[in-house]
Amino acid sequence: MTYSFLHARRLALTLATGVALTVSAVSPSQAAVKVQHLISPGGIEAWFVQDVAVPLIAMEFAFAGGAAQDPSDKSGVSTLVGGLLDEGSGDLDSRTFHERLERRAIGLSFRATSDVFRGSLRMLRDNKDEAFDLLRMALTSPHFETADVERVRSQVISSLRRDTTDPTALASRKFLEIAFRDHPYRRQANGTLESVPTITVADLKDYTSRVIAKDALKIAVVGDVDQVTLGKLLDQTFGTLPAKAKLKPVADIEAAAPPQLVFIPLDVPQSVIAFGGPGVRRGDPDFMAAYVVNHILGGAGLSSRLYHEVREKRGLAYSVSESLLWMDHSAVVIGRTGTRADRAGETISAIERETRRIAEEGPTQKELDEAKSYLKGSQMLELDTSTKLAHALLQYQIDKLPIDYIEKQNAIVDAVTLDDARHAARRLWGRGLLTVVVGRAPQAVAQPAGVPAPSSN
């Protein structure tokens, strides 16, 4: 799968918890979208699109910090907080809180990614007062009752135990560990089997007191509500939060230089291969060229070079893809595929040859033109519901893009030249690949030329 630049960037295997409600209200066409910069009477800012076509409201919001703010020895704190904010707050216990959500068909969820602690709120227009009030209580007076903490903790631990026998999870986790060494980005948001049992209620309270604050808040709202009403709701919901977050500084880091090859033994029918290397951050002038050329090499659909070489030409795997993932302080490209253990070496070699070829030669003009056409067309599908539009508008804010980015993005894609794409390809893959293989028999993994002998986990 390829990550659209309208999608929030996610590190693999981030655990999302909470109550979810899918809203499929059709939003205005891209041409008709008018994004407003709303400032409430109390100074709460939001990007807002009023859409009266369907009586629904979708809000996406995020606080800076995310899993990178977890204590170094207690990864998973942010995920537990995300699973517990709606487990009782104010004068409502967990059962009563969820009954009120369900009775009004209100969707409320929280989750942590590497750089932000995110929330989603969905409701019918007529239930907006109750929905926003429940969110206010969740943010300002969560209970963190022992029984609720232990229940959510057990769910996270069960997921982590499943991951110990999941080759995709193991490959993704190891890739990040290699790429980011001792940086917070090496840690998964859902923690580890060692860290999650040690997290205390005091840790949860400390995290919320440091991260959930007004100066770290971004909001996007799409739906059937007017500016005046929305301003009042935002003040009532977020107005009593602390003014300033107390975030620990996070350093910039470039992913570890390739080539590297690591093998993790696991007795599974099919080996999983994760591959990639340093990427390009969102604010980098080369970002869009990197995004386009990555689509050519390993993007969605059946036309990428890797799909042709690995699946169609050689029948080595059912699927293969590579994505560009960007965070506030770094970026990586990461791809995944699965194959028979006795063909893992052949698969790695095919991937390595194709990435080396595009690094040396770049794409063709035809490939560039087709990739641009696909990306411009697919972005329309990313804005066809109120939920997707709110999600995109929040991501633009997180990425520090202008409020009129929707109107500009096609022109930015079009502006990528063949020289730009070739430069980006050399930058992404010119040094080779970081590769992690999870599966049977290390002797089945042949070494690509120039890659050091694989180490085992």
From TrEMBL:
It comes from the Bacteria. Pfam families: Peptidase_M16, Peptidase_M16_C. Residues 1-31 form the signal peptide. Keywords: Hydrolase, Protease, Signal. Residues 198-374 form the Peptidase M16 C-terminal domain. GO terms for biological process: proteolysis. The keyword Hydrolase applies. The keyword Protease applies. Residues 64-189 form the Peptidase M16 N-terminal domain. InterPro entries: Metalloenz_LuxS/M16, MPP/UQCRC_Complex, Pept_M16_N, Peptidase_M16_C. One of its GO terms (molecular function) is metal ion binding. PANTHER family: METALLOPROTEASE, PROCESSING PROTEASE. This is Zinc protease. It comes from Bradyrhizobium macuxiense.
